[in-house]
Amino acid sequence: MPHGKQTRVLLLSDMEKLDKTLFRLEQGFELQFRLGPTLQGKNVTVYTNYPASGEVFNRHKFRSLSWHNPTGREDDSDKFCKLDLQVSGSYQYYFSHENEKSGGGYIVVDPILRVGLNNHVLPLDCVTLQTFLAKCLGPFNEWEDRLRVAKESGYNMVHFTPLQKLGLSRSCYSLADQLEVNPEFSSPNKKCSWSDVGKLTEKMKNEWNMLCITDVVYNHTAANSGWIKEHPECAYNLVNSPHLRPAWLLDRALWHLTCEVAGGKCKDKGVSPLIENDHHLNSIRKIIWEDIFPKIKLWEFFQVDINKAVQQFKNLLTQGSKKTKTDPKQHLVIIQDPEYKRFGCTVDMNIALATFIPHSNGPAAIEECCNWFRKRIEELNGEQFRQTTYHQEQAVNCFVESVNYERLADHGPKLGAVTRKYPLVTSYFTYPFKELTLEEEEPLMHQPDKSCHFMAFNGWVMGDDPLKNFAEPGSNVYLRRELICWGDSVKLRYGTKPEDCPYLWAHMKKYTELTAKYFSGVRLDNCHSTPLPVAEYMLDTARKLRPNLYVVAELFTGSEELDNIFVNKLGISSLIREAMSAYNSHEEGRLVYRFGGEPVGSFVQPRLRPLIPAIAHALFMDITHDNECPIQHRSAYDALPSSTVVSMACCATGSTRGYDELVPHQISVVSEERFYAKWNPEASPATPGEVNFKSGIIAGRLAINRLHQELGAKSFIQVFVDQVDEDIVAVTRHCPNTHQSVVAVSRTAFRNPKTSFYSQEVPQMCIPGKIEEVVLEARTIERDAGPYIKDERSINGLPDYTVEIREHIQLKESRIIKQAGIATKGPNEFVQEIEFEKLTPGSVIIFRVSLDPKAQDAVGVLRNHLIQFSPHFKSGSLPDDNSEPILKTPFSTIASKLTLADLNQLLYRCEAEEQEDGGGCYNIPNWTPLKYAGLQGLMSVMADIRPKNDLGHPFCGNLRSGDWMIDYVSDRLISRSGACAEVGKWLKAMFIYLKTIPRYLIPCYFDAILVGVYTTLLDLAWKQMSSFVQDGSTFVKHLSLGSIQMCGVGKYPSLPPLSPALQDVPYRLNEITKEREQCCVSLAAGLPHFSSGIFRCWGRDTFIALRGLMLVTVRYLEARNIILAFAGTLRHGLIPNLLGQGTHARYNCRDAVWWWLQCVQDYCKIVPNGTDILKSAVSRIYPTDDSPPQPAGTWDQPLYEVIQEAMQRHIQGIEFRERNAGSLIDRNMRDEGFNVTAGIDSETGFVFGGNRFNCGTWMDKMGESDRARNKGFPATPRDGSAVEIVGLCKSTVHWLLELSKKNIFPYRGVTVKRHGKQTITYDEWNRKIKAHFEKLFFVSENPADRDEKHPTLVHKRGIYKDSYGASSPWCDYQLRPNFTIAMVVVSLKTLHAQLRNGLFLFFWRLKKNFLTPQVRSEISCPGECRQIANLIFHQVPPVPGYFLSFYLKQSDILSYLFYFFPLNRSSWKGLPELTNENGQYCPFSCESQAWSIAVILEVLYDL
């Protein structure tokens, strides 16, 4: 990855639909798609419509991305495909598997905005926008004087409402012609053109450093638009939308009611032209129900003509018409007439004929049948009547509520008397013809030349689904009168593609191109009601002309998920968010925190990191042109503090012209006809039509706009909001590079200070660090400038309010602060205590704060030392000439002296291991102890916290509260000797500086230090391993860390001592005896259950895992020591399963010795000169079966003799009773179970042994439950010849045969001492097994196979038996996974076809919970349940890697390889012993198991 390049990784998961998830990226970023666990090993193809280099974006053209595999390995852990994002916009991706779409989503790439002659970048978070109503700018030649107000106020973007010709209503958003400039902008001598507008916007961009955006209105056009009359098909009319005909008729009836009320014709019914009270409303409701609805009979549009339908049915019956076969589940329903004529609906006569069947063909029977049919039609018509009545009820309620709002409500417009100009309610449809009676008008809706001009108006529906078009069929919004109607604008009917309405799409495309040509961005008006296909098409058109188009939208979906759908599909750059939605200062502060920035003290994120969901970028506006006036709802005093709170948000901010001048009313987009004031520096406050810095809060606005732009440009990206009291909000913006802060304290005035009580006692504030200056202090004050009089020609504000402002002063000069003192809040936590004197409502004070000088130096030094890990820390770093000597050495040099055993101490060590050493894992109060004492314990937690910046986590709280965790990390290492202690000293020296910085920064820098150390240690670990690991994939490297995790040296030796004659055995000085003792690495079976003491080492586990964890990772010397240590414990021809340091061993398993022999074989084959180990001295603890333990060196013999003894004892036969048999060593085993037998069958060469009461292999787990009646009974006794042991034996015999041929192994065979001496050569033994293995273990598909001893027990053919010769013959015939071990170690070359299916079955079982629901339901006691679970979990495959190894060798494919491996998800960073169903957590399992990691690593190595 190039230096400095930001890369995000999106992990793909099968069937994951992310259409409602927002992923924001910047241009220049690289996006990598990688396969998640559910897709790894599958043939996945990723498609995207992001254009290839040199191509033009086509939303519907997708291309496949090529996969890159940097390691070239077989596994998928590093495989990725990528996009280099250089073009802004919205892009879709999806991925498929086996030609089926498996998931997908969207990415949104932000535009890069540029201003000025030098084309410098304007970051989105620096945007300060002001909205202008275009019609209030006056003639074009006066625009500059009026727009200059925005420039002088510090705004860098102007939003114009549409500049087009307006409709009759004069609404800024009702456009008569989308392609014509508003003629009102022209003067008598000069016609204003688009070219003139373009020159102005270019001048503003280059000379004023301001960008211009404007609205695009796609939903509607003015009712008087000339083109809509020529192309009525572009609107929803009664021809192309006949479903609106009933709603049109109701609308006309209500219009006629308006005319009657306006004419005073309803007075006798209780309704006068002036609606004044609820009685009038109730009277209107009564008129509609009693006069209008019965008259227009809307239900008839949804009903069937009964007589006509019955006659048709009767004719069909009489004619004996053949019935068409119908679905018996279909019932008779009304089919809506598509033309919506009265009684035009029908029913399906085929269903009728199949439903109503006469019992004969006689007239009486037919008549009876018709009567039943008639009755059913009447019922259906009744249902339609009731449904229509339901719609009418809603229509009446909405109608009356509208009348109430417009004429009675205090917050409504109070329109006064009903007239034709101000009707009872706004009409829903246009009616451009001569007015007739309602009876005369109804037929017009069926005359296409007339009804095509009855067009539906647009509006919005409260609480409606924004993804549904309320004017389309299926919606009853117009009939139910639920539309809040804009009676000046016709709703446009696009369809879903240009072919559906060619003229409309072409017309709006020209409109879009015109806008994109002259403006840097667009505001999508009423975006939530804009059909998505339309907006997609138009924005694609705009971006072809202006690739970095800034797209702003207003969305009122009420749901972040729905917002994301629009943002994703349209590539919206910023969503408008309204501060006026805040009902108090607390909510206003919450919005600031919500809409941008990260928490103060956030973690340093790597350049390569996961792509995480985002919220839409906000354009946070203190007021929009649609909002009601804040002076009326709050107070004039609130304008300055609320605008300051908004400007401190880490996002784009904005306002509307008039707010800064304190205009005390809403500037209506419909009715306002006055012009804005011009800029005149010399104007007096009362001068009409002119403003300057003395007007309103303009001076304060300039200061906060400049500050907002500075904070965005200088990366003050961290935000903290403090609600000081009910009215005071303090917002902090913090720069994580310099650790400077800007703190704005605003005392809002949501209540008018003149009429509401505000306490003069302002809480004292503590500001961390050193206040460098007061950037700004300002107060809203009154002055004597005369009362407000609304000017007739220009929009004017309150003249008697202004801002008293002072900038860049020292604390002592402040008039708001009474005094400031310095205090210590805690260790090295310096704060300045501020006592306010005149922080009156309407006041703000803004501080620039740096860290305490000592803390600033400490941060600089820390950053300087962190540069060795990342260049990110260069900014703000300081050289350190007085640092501890150890810090002058690069950490990588200090770490280079560490061994892999040292890294076990540094990185891992679980609780039990640490307790054995006298310590323990760090316990976080109110949470849990860490999984490891080493760095991995910390890193696992921080890996979850860091991406989310979860600074509220108890982990971070503990760091902020004290130095306990910090000291634990360094002191734990210093207490150890050697290289580990040096690392501890380096950390302690770094932590000296860490402890002197403010507590809120400690989690961030603690994480940065540990991340640098951790990654350095991981690199060091891999460099000490094999080239397979060093050049391997991320998955291989992470698996290889299991070698460090499991292999370590504790305070007490876990292995028995090796022979003193051996070379290169590690020694140390015993802390207690002060004598030299061996300190060999031992291999833990699993964490945390088998990690320490006598339960750490197990023969079976050790030698299943040793090849993967030690030989594959080239830890040859340590592997040799473990092999020889176990060799020294040989007794009865067996090695122990539970090692117990050799002196507490249990020789109760038959398979451990064969795993050990297999491992010796692997060592000889993998290690250079590996057969030299056969001559290595083995110090026997038990030279004879009954001898007491012998000290190391007392009885040495070469390894090959020990191997021969194991083979000899098996051929001779093994039979003994365990020492100390009884409850002391196993409380559950029956007495017979302590009897151990093993031997070699003389005819077959198979190893056999055991009885049905002992546990000689993994799957013989002893039952422990009295309640389940299994105590003392192994779950599945495997006496006889277990298939995996026979396979391991065959592998060993063949290997010894080959060595003996080369004279490397001095024995040619073994001697049987039964009836005289008889020598059996290894060649003979090998041939015996080979001759009998297939014959006796494979269950033939031929039922007549003579070799099958128990054909009646066969329940599945084409499989390998689990055992042969069991005392219970049925046990032999179980299909179980153990045969795969034999298949791998003997390298079987053939694979029966049916067996291949069996392999899939076993792999499927890997993810199944073998504790069935039935068993769970029968066990009520948790203790019993645990015992049952312990019994059952031994029945799953112990070594899934052997299945994988065998299967992959046979099929050479990599399917399903990583589905169940939670390596990266687990806090233990390992693979569990087993899981429950579908990979769910199993509480009885080891969290990290040695053989689980090792065998997967082996598979990848063998590939």
Query: Could you describe the largest sheet, including whether it forms a barrel?
Result: 8 strands, parallel, barrel
- Cα distance spanning the termini: 28 Å
User: What's the number of helices?
Assistant: 40
State which percent range the strand residues make up.
15-25%
User: What is the topology, as strand order, of the major beta sheet?
Assistant: 12-13-16-22-23-24-27-28
DSSP, total strands: 56
Question: So what's the oligomer here?
Answer: single chain
Mean pLDDT: 90
Q: What would you call the shape? A: globular
Low-confidence stretches: 1389-1433, 1446-1457
Helix content: 25-40%
Radius of gyration: 42 Å
Q: Would you tell me the structural class of the helices and strands?
A: alpha/beta
Task: Describe the secondary structure blueprint for this structure.
Layout: E1 7-12, E2 17-18, E3 24-25, E4 30-35, E5 44-48, E6 63-64, E7 80-84, E8 89-97, E9 100-109, E10 113-115, E11 120-122, E12 128-132, H1 143-152, E13 157-160, E14 164-166, E15 175-181, H2 194-206, E16 211-216, E17 220-222, H3 226-230, H4 245-262, H5 278-296, H6 306-319, E18 334-335, E19 346-347, H7 349-355, H8 363-407, H9 438-441, H10 448-451, E20 457-460, E21 484-491, H11 502-518, E22 521-524, H12 532-545, E23 550-553, H13 560-570, E24 574-578, H14 585-594, E25 598-599, E26 608-610, E27 618-621, H15 630-633, H16 639-647, E28 652-656, E29 678-679, E30 690-691, H17 698-713, E31 718-723, E32 728-734, E33 741-747, E34 765-768, E35 770-782, E36 801-809, E37 817-826, E38 829-836, E39 843-850, H18 853-866, H19 891-895, H20 900-907, H21 911-916, H22 935-948, H23 954-961, H24 964-974, H25 979-994, H26 1002-1023, H27 1027-1030, H28 1034-1046, E40 1047-1048, E41 1067-1069, E42 1076-1078, E43 1082-1083, E44 1086-1087, H29 1099-1111, H30 1116-1127, H31 1152-1166, E45 1177-1179, E46 1196-1198, H32 1199-1212, E47 1214-1217, E48 1235-1240, ...
Parallel strand pairs: 1-4, 1-26, 2-9, 3-9, 12-13, 12-28, 13-16, 16-22, 22-23, 23-24, 24-27, 25-31, 27-28, 29-30
Antiparallel strand pairs: 4-7, 5-6, 5-8, 8-9, 10-11, 14-15, 17-21, 18-19, 20-21, 31-32, 32-33, 33-39, 34-38, 35-36, 35-39, 37-38, 40-43, 41-42, 44-56, 45-46, 47-48, 48-49, 50-55, 51-52, 53-54
Helix pairs in contact: 4-5, 5-8, 6-8, 11-12, 16-17, 22-26, 24-25, 25-26, 28-40, 29-30, 29-31, 29-40, 30-31, 31-33, 33-34, 33-35, 35-39, 36-39, 39-40
